[in-house]
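Hi R.,

Here's the chain you asked about this morning:
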Amino acid sequence: MTRVVVIHRVADVDRWRAAFDAAADLRAAGGELDFEVLHADDDPHLVVHLARWTTIAEARAFFESPEVVAIRKSAGAEPPTFLYLVAVPLAASSDPGDRDEGLSFNGPPDAAAPINK
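And the predicted structure, written out as tokens:
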């Protein structure tokens, strides 16, 4: 599982969001599978774009392309920080049905229940 975290400061949130939404088809064609947009609770100009991508190579190629750099710039976004992430697989189990593609956190730990499957 490949995830990308894009963190950047934007001058005008509405202007940035309009450009972001207009690029939805471009992101999907580049390999984005789904996404979520958040902002810092105390600063709406600090935007975080969390996305699931087909591969890290496709995500890097997309985000570093001259076209996307120009879109970000025209949308008033400062150069972002990128985190290209891959899931840490759980330890192998004797039952293939017990395996998960990544870590699973379902709330605060309970003394009676394990954190992961």
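The chain has four helices and four strands.

Let me know if you need anything else.
M.
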